[in-house]
Amino acid sequence: MMTFLIVDDSRVIRSVARKIFQDLGIETREAENGQLGLDSVKEAIPDGVLLDWNMPVMNGLEFLQSLRATDLERQPKVILCTTENDMDHIMAALSAGADEYIMKPFDADIIRTKLEQIGLL
Amino acid sequence: MSTPLIPLEFDVFARLLKLRSGIIITPDKTYLLESRLQPIARKWNLEDLRGIAKKLSGMPDQRLLDDIVDAMTTNETLFFRDQNPFDSLKNYVLPTLTDKGHRPRKIRIWSAACSSGQEAYSIAMLLLEEKEKYAGCTFEIVGTDISREILAKAQSGIFSQFEVQRGLPIQYLVKYFVKDGDRWALKDTVKSMVSFRFFNLLEDPRLLGTFDIVFCRNVLIYFDHNTKKGILERISRALSPDGVLCLGGSESVLGITDKFTSVTGQRSMYQQSAPK
């Protein structure tokens, strides 16, 4: 079964995303900041990561840069999912290795189409 | 609270929609009338749908008729809806029509019932991505719809944050849009490839010229058998001999017309049948 790691400091967002993924038949794991997210990836590599930008301890961009610099058996797909909706943030995320970008608020259709675009559905 | 429609009043709406747009609405879709026409009732200071029906039975204002058809025919769309037709366009239709780009020609593409324009603009972005392969070719995309209101939105090329996230790869957003407040505006490089025109599918599309590719997806499902047949046969007359018709995933020409045959290996793609 496909697994997604949801990295977001908001319990509400994690819960909404978990429900959407579960409805798509995707298993989820959760982390509440970038550092815990990295630890989780090193423990078991997920197929994808849904990643918030603004988080305590380690933010989403730092997580993404560290992840892409880490020597892993395979790199998971990463979808940034953030309230940051200007071109500079999107460009920064893509430069750091994001595969897709979601601007909050989001819904199940947006998640589904983004998963299709990155070849996970 | 609004009073439910009686059958006679329902028939007023059903006849109007069939006559002006070809769309069939059955009594089990009364909820659709209720949800879509309540805003029209408010706009015209009428209490409810019964008020609209009453007004329609006299000498109705043309603008009221337009509003009703607009409200009932405007459908949701998204960028690159169902990826498959766009893959077929890129990998089969365009190379075939141009002998892999070696045969320079003008390719005209029709996005029928284009709603707010996402399909037409998706085709334009795909063509821009592929332009080096078709250096000698020119492309013209025409989007048509029966709703003037939705055509104005399509023409604006401005989309909400929700709309640009539904189907549009983020790399295309960065490449082909600029942020405009809290909305996203298409760049002129894309907009200039598409023109939009009012057109009713019950009319003869040769008014729009001849096309090499017609996208008419998820449209036929709203019509009865004879109307579908008429639309398909009129499209056939407006399609070039080597042209291709793309229908929606759940639509087919089977049992409706023999003017088209399916393209082998290309789901939802149809070509003109050989003359008998």
Can you give a write-up of this model?
The complex is a heterodimer of chains A (121) and B (276). Helices cover 43% and strands 20% of the residues of chain A. Chain A has 5 helices and 5 strands; from the N terminus they run E-H-E-H-E-H-E-H-E-H. Chain A has a 5-stranded parallel sheet with strand order 2-1-3-4-5, with helices on both faces. The longest helix of chain A has 13 residues. Chain B has 276 residues and is an alpha/beta fold. Chain B has 2 domains: 67 residues, Chemotaxis receptor methyltransferase CheR, N-terminal domain (Chemotaxis Receptor Methyltransferase Cher, domain 1), CATH 1.10.155; 190 residues, Rossmann fold (3-Layer(aba) Sandwich), CATH 3.40.50.150. Chain B is 42% helix and 19% strand. In chain B, strands 6-2-1-7-8-10-9 form a 7-stranded mixed sheet. In chain B, strand 9 and strand 10 form a beta hairpin. At the A-B interface, helix 4, strand 5 and helix 5 of A face helix 8 and helix 9 of B.
Largest interface: A-B, 19 and 15 residues
CATH architecture of chain A: 3-Layer(aba) Sandwich
Number of domains of chain B: 2
Question: What would the CATH topology of the largest domain in chain B be?
Answer: Rossmann fold
Shape summary of chain A: globular
- Helix amount of chain A: 40-55%
Fraction of residues in helix of chain B: 40-55%
Largest sheet of chain A: 5 strands, parallel
- Low-confidence segments of chain A, given as residue ranges, are none
Gap from first CA to last CA of chain A: 12 Å
Helical stretch tally of chain B: 11
Extended strand count of chain B: 10
The oligomeric status of these chains comes to heterodimer
Give me the Rg of chain B, rounded: 20 Å
CATH homology superfamily of the largest domain in chain B: Vaccinia Virus protein VP39
What does the main sheet of chain B amount to?
Answer: 7 strands, mixed
CATH class (first level) name of the largest domain in chain B:
Alpha Beta
Give the helices and strands, then pairings.
The complex is a heterodimer of chains A (121) and B (276).
Chain A: E1 3-7, H1 11-23, E2 27-31, H2 34-43, E3 48-51, H3 60-69, E4 77-82, H4 87-95, E5 100-103, H5 108-117
Parallel strand pairs in A: 1-2, 1-3, 3-4, 4-5
Helix pairs in contact in A: 2-3
Chain B: H1 7-21, H2 30-43, H3 49-56, H4 62-73, H5 83-97, E1 106-111, H6 118-130, E2 138-145, H7 148-156, E3 158-160, H8 161-165, H9 170-176, E4 177-180, E5 183-186, H10 188-191, E6 194-198, E7 211-216, H11 225-238, E8 239-247, E9 260-262, E10 269-272
Parallel strand pairs in B: 1-2, 1-7, 2-6, 7-8
Antiparallel strand pairs in B: 3-5, 4-5, 8-10, 9-10
